[in-house]
Amino acid sequence: MAQPSNNSVGVDNTFRRKFDREEYLERAREREQKETEGRKSKSKGPPVQRKPLKHRDYEVNLQSRLGKTQVVTPIAPLSQQAGYFCSVCECVVKDSANYLDHINGKKHQRALGMSMRVERSSLQQVQERFEHLKKRKDTGSFTEQDFDERILKQQQEEEERKRQRREKKKEKKREQTAEEETIDDPDVAALMGFGGFRSSKK
Predict the structure, then answer these.
(1) Which pLDDT score is estimated for 33?
(2) What is the reported pTM?
(3) What pairs with residue 91 in β-bridges?
């Protein structure tokens, strides 16, 4: 029986990847050092203070371009391209739903200088708001007399509209009869080419 020699190769399990721990530790130290330097350079400037969210002081008009046609050219400036133009962010949004999402979104609010947080109200502010709404409700309450006056006013407006419609119909009828009378004239009918349509029976 042949004895195995000590020089025999055997199983090769050197295919597994070997990592140099020192090299990777050095890389991690360099990365941490760069991150701390970056944080220090960012913190040199004053922190940005953004105002809390507040109500819009203008009304969003989404119906301004409803039913209008527009020629789309690639060389037109952004404000004249098809869609809704945001002058704050200088971008064009293609439809009204996306435009509404954009102006309520984070990017637009940050450009306006606001954070996405809402200011917390104090107890005193809430009580003042309730008092304000209560006063407004008291002054805006309707009596039966006010209600009757409003109904009477609406009825008068409806009657006025009906009267205007009747007048328009009468005006149209007058115009039609005037046109028919001009056509009934045999000379005018002959000029217009209607002379051959009459029957010869009497």
Answers:
(1) 92
(2) 0.42
(3) 86
Q: Which two tokens stand for residue 89?
A: 């962010």
pLDDT at 180: 72
pLDDT of 66 > 70? The answer is: yes
Distances in whole angstroms, Cα of residue 59 to Cα of each of 76, 100, 118: 27, 12, 20
Q: Is the pLDDT of residue 196 over 90?
A: no
